[in-house]
Amino acid sequence: MRVSDIMSSPVITCHQDWRLEDAVQLMVEKKIGVLPVIDDRGILQGTVTENDFLPHYSRVDGRGLSVATIFGEYLDSAETAEDIFERVRTAAVRDCMNHFPMTLTRDTSLTSTVYQMFHSSGQKAVVVEEGRPVGVVSSHDVMKSMIKVQQSARCAIA
């Protein structure tokens, strides 16, 4: 089984110059968890995902000190998530996106996809062709593929 068998396509994208709130609105309207970000030529530049709205721990220094951040902004007791969301909502997507998303090709095997998702702690990957997004694969898509494999095995036995 290949990525082309399980990916969601056509892919919904946004431009890197959009405001973050416009990208979020599109994600909510389309009920999608990842939005590939493109430039003027349609080339993938990054992603915005639903996980970006949850705090992540970021290293502050070489001593291992970590602090919670949302979109690279420090979340501390003096500031709320709402404060951060208000401050970044009009920021350009390029300033808030993940600049290094996991990418796959249509021909990537299911095994390789699972391996890459596990090792990158990623739940979503963008399928690219000549640098342009052509699909998205999520951990949910991988789970659905497992059901297809099981159903195929049952049909072969019957």
Automatic annotation (TrEMBL):
SUPFAM superfamilies: CBS-domain pair
Key word Signal present: no
SMART domains per the UniProt record, alphabetical: CBS
Residue span, CBS domain: 7-65, 97-152
Pfam families from the UniProt entry: CBS
Keyword Thylakoid: no
InterPro entries according to UniProt: CBS_dom, CBS_dom_sf, Diverse_CBS-Domain
Keywords, comma-separated and alphabetical: CBS domain
Name of this protein: CBS domain-containing protein
